[in-house]
């Protein structure tokens, strides 16, 4: 996952997990129906009304239930990005300036016109008028630095309050663009996401109490039923609970309350306060975007995001049909994305381990089943033989006293022919006898060989023979040399003996 600093273009890898899909109330354009979906369109007017009150306009054609719908507004992208939502996508909210002064400036008088937040930020970064000399340029550079890193106060005028720089200001450089899944459920499905500051185990253990509490907040209307569609763990010990509302009419029919209608009711100030008491920190709808809404979202870059980076994010989208680019502001937002990704990785690994265990169990069951099949086949063959023997005995008893019939005679002839073929010397029986004799001989030789104490490898025996042959040849050659030497010695002795006789004769 890349991150951009100093306005450099970078795009994050697509986070395709469903944990990042429920979005944050981003709004674009104009609408007066507080959809509360992942992306709502336009600044809308906050109006209140009795959603579940008994009014003339009952709504949905039922005798009671959702009457007049209420709307709650979200900030439009033209001015600010909405509050941070389930996917953890921070927004560029317009912050209220805090009172104070650095050089004894006067507080804003009630009758004076208050400059807009963007105008204050631009003035603080470009042309502050605090001292009226070249030192104002130093203040401008200092304000620019604060705006870039997204913290601090920018003093720009002695007659106005300082502007507060947060990471949501358009000039903050710690920004990037990531991707989130586009919801695929319809508004008619009525799915609304509630984020609770409780662990998943606690929520599951107290799920029934949670449903009863929500039903009580909705007015204890007997025609309305709160249902839980799913529970999923989120980082920082939070839990996502998806609910939907079903309204039943007296004639027995039922219908889901649209997600936008339910969300609008839950966003009312008094209802929201009651939800906060049971641990709900955020609510959002989960409904798909219309093609026109999706087109408008992609065409207009969010406030504070460079259009070039936004266009590049659309080009680098790995799955344009399923993912949509969303801005990420600050390291906290990046950490939240990383935590969601790690959590989804753990969930996927857990699911893989479960599948692996299931496969191992199935393999064991398969081996057991194969063994049982072999056992049953053997048992079937034994039973078949027993049945055949019973049939033979029964047929013998049934045919006793009757003459041999023609078909039985043909069968006897065929059996005799087969028997003669089997008993022929060159046929199966002769070959079996030959094999049996060879097996007996091998067993006899094996028994004899088993009595031997030592055995020599054939290659080693060949080498021993070759060595002994060489030794034999050397001994033969030595014997021949000795014989030749003996002959020479005898010749010398004979010569010496002849020489002695000759000397004796001369002396005499």
TrEMBL record:
One of its GO terms (cellular component) is nuclear pore central transport channel. Pfam families: Nup54, Nup54_C. Residues 302-439 form the Nucleoporin Nup54 alpha-helical domain. It is a peripheral membrane protein. Residues 454-492 form the Nup54 C-terminal interacting domain. Its main location: nucleus. GO terms for biological process: mRNA transport; NLS-bearing protein import into nucleus; nuclear pore organization; protein localization to nuclear inner membrane. It is found in: Nucleus membrane; Nucleus, Nuclear pore complex. GO terms for molecular function: structural constituent of nuclear pore. Transmembrane segments: none annotated. Component of the p62 complex, a complex composed of NUP62, NUP54, and the isoform p58 and isoform p45 of NUP58. Interacts with NUTF2. Belongs to the NUP54 family. This is 54 kDa nucleoporin. It comes from Tetraodon nigroviridis (Spotted green pufferfish).
């Amino acid at each position: 996952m890349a991150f951009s600093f100093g306005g450099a273009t970078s795009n994050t890898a697509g986070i395709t997990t469903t944990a990042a899909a429920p979005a944050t109330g981003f709004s674009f354009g104009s609408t007066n129906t507080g959809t509360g979906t992942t992306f709502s369109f336009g600044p809308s007017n906050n109006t209140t009304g009795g959603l579940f009150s008994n009014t003339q306009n009952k709504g949905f054609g039922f005798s009671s239930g959702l009457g007049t719908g209420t709307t709650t507004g979200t900030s439009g992208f033209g001015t600010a990005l909405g509050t941070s939502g389930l996917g953890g996508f921070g927004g560029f909210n317009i912050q209220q300036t805090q009172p104070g002064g650095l050089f004894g400036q006067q507080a804003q008088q009630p009758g004076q016109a208050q400059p807009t937040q963007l105008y204050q930020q631009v003035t603080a970064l470009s042309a502050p008028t605090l001292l009226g000399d070249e030192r104002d340029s130093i203040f401008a550079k200092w304000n620019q630095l604060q705006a870039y890193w997204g913290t601090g106060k920018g003093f720009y005028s002695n007659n106005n309050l300082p502007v507060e720089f947060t990471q949501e200001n358009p000039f903050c450089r710690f920004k990037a663009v990531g991707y989130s899944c586009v919801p695929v459920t319809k508004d008619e499905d009525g799915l609304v996401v509630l984020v609770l500051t409780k662990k998943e185990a606690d929520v599951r253990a107290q799920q029934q109490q949670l449903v009863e509490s929500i039903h009580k907040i909705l007015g204890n209307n007997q025609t309305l039923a709160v249902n839980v569609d799913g529970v999923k763990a989120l980082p920082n010990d939070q839990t996502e609970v998806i609910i939907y509302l079903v309204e039943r009419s007296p004639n027995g029919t039922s219908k889901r309350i649209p997600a936008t209608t339910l969300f609008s009711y839950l966003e009312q100030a008094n209802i929201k306060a009651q939800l906060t008491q049971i641990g709900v920190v955020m609510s959002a709808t989960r409904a798909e975007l219309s093609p026109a809404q999706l087109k408008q979202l992609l065409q207009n870059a969010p406030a504070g995001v460079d259009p070039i980076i936004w266009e590049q994010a659309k080009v680098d989208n790995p799955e344009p049909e399923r993912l949509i680019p969303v801005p990420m502001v600050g390291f906290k937002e990046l950490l939240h994305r990383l935590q969601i990704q790690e959590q989804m990785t753990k969930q996927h690994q857990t699911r893989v381990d479960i599948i692996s265990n299931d496969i191992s169990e199935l393999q064991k069951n398969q081996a057991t089943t194969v063994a049982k099949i072999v056992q049953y086949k053997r048992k079937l063959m034994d039973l078949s033989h027993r049945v055949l023997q019973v049939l033979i005995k029964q047929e013998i008893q049934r045919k006793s006293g009757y003459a041999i019939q023609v078909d039985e005679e043909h069968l006897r002839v065929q059996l005799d022919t087969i028997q003669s073929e089997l008993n022929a010397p060159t046929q199966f029986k002769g070959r079996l006898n030959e094999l049996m004799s060879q097996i007996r001989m091998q067993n006899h030789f094996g028994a004899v060989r088993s009595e031997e104490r030592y055995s020599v490898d054939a290659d080693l025996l060949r080498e021993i023979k070759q060595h002994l042959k060489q030794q034999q040849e050397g001994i033969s050659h030595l014997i021949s040399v000795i014989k030749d030497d003996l002959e020479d010695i005898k010749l010398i002795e004979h010569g010496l003996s002849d020489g002695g006789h000759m000397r004796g004769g001369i002396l005499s």
